[in-house]
Records
---
Amino acid sequence: MLAHCWIFSYGNCRGKIISSWETIETAWYDTSVQTCALCGQMIPKRFWEAEVRGEALVFCSEECEQLYRSYWLPKYGPKENER
Ligand SMILES: [Zn+2]
């Protein structure tokens, strides 16, 4: 369950409120792999789920989510005022 982060508009949200660790439940015959939205690393067991711009994204760690927000989004993501 992802709740809206009310302090994000102040640029102060570290993802603590809307993010959570989730566990991948896969059977041995399930060959699908979850990969990190930032670094593309395969995530074997636990993934970090965070809401980024209304989308639920999967990261391998909190650090990747913070990098995604502070580096990737401003550089490659859609601009805030292009909605
Ligand atoms: Zn990662």
Note: Residues 50 and 83 are 21 Å apart (CA to CA).
---
Amino acid sequence: MVGTRATPVHFDGADNLLVQIFGRKKLILIPPAESEKLYYPCLRLGHVHYSPVDIEDPDFVQFPKFKDATLFEVTLEPGEILFIPVRWWHHARSLETAISLNFWWYSMRSLFRMRHPYFVFHKDRVTKKLLNVR
Ligand SMILES: O=C(O)CCC(=O)C(=O)O
């Protein structure tokens, strides 16, 4: 990602290393156990792994549970790397022009922890395929 914009709060379906190359980036992370406070799943959003809550300017009337969410905040400096585990919610805001690189990778652990509605529904079939069981 290049630029100064923000990426709304969402989670990834894989483990993720976020490498800060240039400029600073502020990340807010929220544990998967708090997904309900982010109104997950929100099926009216195009992507189910995004939250309808604007965590920089939250509407507590519409989303009162978000008041109780646990937020971890970190600012990445150039040369720093952040590990974002699968399913952890994260919001990113570049504090100036910034360049980052991502490395995402899938593992059995990340696929199981992801608990995407598709994966939950097809868990047995996907597991058999991954384990090469007939
Ligand atoms: O760098 C960004 O703005 C987005 C980072 C992000 O969402 C991610 O690493 O998954």
Note: The pocket of 2-oxoglutaric acid is lined by residues 1, 7, 12, 16, 18, 90, 92, 100, 102 (CB under 6 Å).
